Amino acid sequence: MLLVIVEEDAGGVSAASLEAVTCARHLAEGAGLDLHAAAFGAHGDLAAGLSKYGVSTLHLVTSESTREYSPELWGTALAELVEHTGATGVLAASTDRGTEILANAAASTEQPFASNCVAIEPGDPWTLTRQRGGGILLEDAELSGRVKLASLVAGSVEISEATATHEVDVLEFAPTPQATMPHSAIVDRTSRGSGVSLASARVVVSGGRGVGSAEGFAPLEELAELLGGAVGCSRVATNNGWRSHSDQVGLTGTKIGAELYIACGISGATQHWVGCMGAKTILAINTDPEAPLVARADYAVIGDVQEVLGAVLERLRARRAAA
Amino acid sequence: MDVLVCIKRVPAPGGKVLLSADGTSIDTRHLGFTIGPHEECAVEEAVRIVAEHGGSTTVLTAGPPEADEQLRYALSMGADHGVLVETGTRELDPQATATALTEAIRLLESESKPFDLVLFGNETADAGHYQVGVRVSRALGLPIVGGIKGIEIGTGRVSLQRDVADGVEVYDAPLPAAAAVKEGLNLPRYPSIKGRLRAKKSPVRTIRPEPSPGGLRTVRLRRPPEKEHETVVLGYGAEAAGAVVDVLAEKGLV
Question: The Electron transfer flavoprotein alpha/beta-subunit N-terminal domain covers which part of the protein (chain A) (predicted)?
């Protein structure tokens, strides 16, 4: 049997989890195995959302000790569920929690874990492709073990339904309380509030060395505001103290998936590229026509950031006034 | 507070990545090396914690003999002790790396006393397995949280903060504890001349464990297929503004 961890989004199964379910079904069918799902602290009706995807059983992990998120307790509970059900493989989406729970379960069971996979094929071992360095390189690898654990990068599998719809059996699973295991506990959570988050913004206006200073970000702020987007920056901008690290787009910052990425004065080292390569369209503004990001962009303007943005903003303000 | 930091020697970012002839590793002949950015922040944090609470910082790395360079860089930032866990020039799988580190830490702890805090980078900048810190911590019986961008030492406890998609989460854990940290935790210092001189002369200890391989075997590395495309140059300087607005309009943004 294969097990897939599903996470909730707006009362249903998240899109990233449905990708993991689709991938897990492909692996299960290839090996003639049953497919089960597991969820922690689920509130919505996940079983209904899974019936079309070839999942026969949903395990709801419910206990006092796993009510709130704790990486070690959830990972240990998953390890126990794996032993309890005899699962030979576990998949999850490569979310912060998905990855963290799988790593903890892999540590508990001393089994191998392949993170950030983009493709997995059935067999023993599994043959898989995973991202390295945030996607700069791909690694073809083999995963062998009594229990194989893998996480899947969002956007790597097209979600598909199974040929037949089955009702999903729901089983509650109460893991053994871990009274003596040292573990962390979540004690506070604050929401960002109304602002547009970098990761989910439709438009990101981002600045690097060419912006020149913290004050130089003012036109980027205004453009982002006019377009309903968020402001991002490169590692140079954070290291110079022009922007907070939470604005950084890149390997060690945030990966964006915007419709439009406007890169102002950013040369585009690989560290930055892996953060913005998920954007649908890239517009680069740079004085250097040879900059790597100019070469990789869909559109480019060769020129000084302040000069170009100043003229663009002037036109946008005029349009707005005329409307 | 005795703090241990695990770091990794990784190819310096920025350049184009070339692969070796057999495609199983990165061709490093023309590359510089560095400490992973997350781990550099971990070293900085450890040095700051020790400056405030007393104790010592030990830096540990599993890798080739050349990783001595990264240990000495950490020493020049203010770490007190460097330990090289020599595992050869071929990269180990994450289970083997974790076993090598765990054995080395157990040896160090058996000789003096357990570390109060163990820091890892959230993921290494090259292989990015997202698990070595978790495996080592769990083997040592330490709580661990990843993605950490804020650390506050309390009495017998530590508060750990991380960014999530829609806000911030705060975790509490009993000491001794571990954390896998992210860039943004702090702004690492540039080593002083004095620090560099001291680091040059500091002894670095070498441990040579022989971990068995785990279940993830690299077959080959390859570059992802690059999208074939032409960049449309909209214009030069301020005169391109009209064309930029046209693109924004086409996207339905204005």
Answer: 2-190
- Report yes or no: B166 at the A interface, CB cutoff 8 Å: yes
Give residue B44's pLDDT. 98
Structural domain for A157, as ranges = 2-173
> Residue A118: which CATH number?
3.40.50.620
**CA A255 to chain centroid:** 8
| Residue A43 scores a pLDDT above 80 | no
- What's the pLDDT at B224? 87
Q: Which residue of B has its CA nearest to A323?
A: B254
CATH code of the domain occupying B2-207: 3.40.50.620
CA angle B96, B38, A6 (to 5 degrees): 70
- State the pLDDT confidence band at B37, using cuts at 50, 70 and 90: very high
φ/ψ of A72, rounded to 5, equals -70, -40
Q: Which of B14, B159, B184 sits opposite A271 (nearest CB)?
A: B14
Sign of CA pseudo-dihedral B62, A73, B43, B123: positive
Distance from CA of B28 to the nearest CA of A (A): 14
Domain parsing of chain B, residue ranges:
2-207
Q: Are residues A83 and A212 in the same domain?
A: no
As a whole number of angstroms, the distance between CA A238 and CA A127 comes to: 39
pLDDT for position B241: 96
In this prediction the ipTM stands at 0.93
Number of domains in chain A: 2
Any domain includes A259: yes
Confidence of residue A194 (pLDDT cuts 50, 70, 90): low
Q: Which of B163, B216, B242 sits opposite A143 (nearest CB)?
A: B216
- Same domain for A27 and A161: yes
Query: How many beta-carbon pairs below 8 A join chains A and B?
Result: 261
Chain A positions in Cβ-Cβ contact with residue B145 (cut-off 8 Å): 71, 184
